[in-house]
Design a protein that fits this description.
Shape: elongated
Strand order of the largest sheet: 2-3-1-4
Largest sheet: 4 strands, antiparallel
Mean pLDDT: 83
Radius of gyration: 20 Å
Low-confidence stretches: none
Distance between the termini: 25 Å
Helix content: 55-70%
Strand content: 5-15%
Number of domains: 2
Length: 273
């Protein structure tokens, strides 16, 4: 229960921080975020509706589709994040911290990236493209990098068309800064490989199998210094499962060793959800 409350509280604070990044850096300087949020910013500029409300409205059909295609907890946490950001953007003033668009794009991207990274680490997302990409990967083995590039390219072109091409260049900087900070706080890779070394490997294995339904490989190893025998668990998971796995392993064995590495691609049997 404490872990769940910590996750919810972290998502709440991070979602408010995301609202700050949008209302105080991106929106006043006509710099767009990537994906669905960027489209919401463009639409809200031409209709009398708050950007946060538009973000929430565009995510409703995505959440409904994701609820049936993806995990319930992940969708509920994501919906909570979007709802908090929407409400926060109603009360956070559209105050232009800096009129320098370069500073606004960098610092807006940094704050937004930190916020989204924390939300990812708490087993949630900010909706939009993250959910769409998971649904697509579940049905088709399509490169997420290509999808992300295409979707963001559309946002950048629309930014140039409506706000001018100089603004489009600053939008590119903002999207890049946001993405890099997500990498730092969480991970930019859709899939990661986890190697777990523990004296309670069998118990960890049983809990992972019962909660994640992921395959794994187990082998026996020996410590070079202690010469003690340990079982090693290796498995490939999506970044959205990473936080839950880390918490589960820590709860089962606080002394377990975990090595987490980025996985570029998986060839063979891998459940794409």
């Amino acid at each position: 229960m404490f872990r769940i409350m910590t996750q919810i509280f972290t998502i709440f604070l991070a979602s408010v921080l995301l609202g700050v990044a949008y209302n105080m850096f991106f929106i006043p300087n006509k710099i767009l975020s990537g994906g669905v949020t960027g489209l919401a910013m463009i639409i809200a500029n031409f209709f009398p509706v708050n950007t946060g409300v538009m973000i929430f409205l565009l995510n409703i059909p995505i959440f409904l589709l994701g609820y049936f295609k993806l995990g319930r907890k992940f969708i509920l946490y994501s919906a909570f994040s979007v709802a908090v950001t929407t409400i926060a953007m109603q009360y956070i003033p559209n105050y232009n911290v800096t009129s320098d668009q370069l500073l606004a794009s960098v610092f807006g991207g940094v704050l937004g990236g930190i916020a989204i990274g924390l939300i990812f680490r708490s087993s949630g997302s900010t909706g939009g493209f993250d959910i769409i990409s998971l649904i697509i990967r579940k049905k088709w083995d399509f490169p997420i990098g290509t999808l992300s590039f295409t979707f963001n390219l559309v946002v950048i072109v629309l930014s140039g068309f409506f706000y001018g091409w100089e603004n489009a260049l600053y939008t590119i900087i903002g999207i890049y800064a946001l993405g890099r900070l997500i990498d730092v706080v969480h991970t930019g890779q859709l899939k990661v490989t986890i190697t777990i070394i523990s004296a309670k490997a069998d118990l960890i294995k049983q809990q992972l199998l019962s909660t994640l339904h992921r395959g794994m490989t187990i082998w026996e190893a020996e410590g070079a210094y202690t010469e003690e025998k340990r079982e090693v668990i290796m498995m490939v998971v999506t970044r959205y499962e990473l936080s839950d796995i880390k918490n589960l392993v820590r709860k089962t064995d606080s002394h377990a060793f975990m090595n987490i590495t980025e996985t570029i691609d998986v060839v063979g049997s891998f459940r794409r959800d």
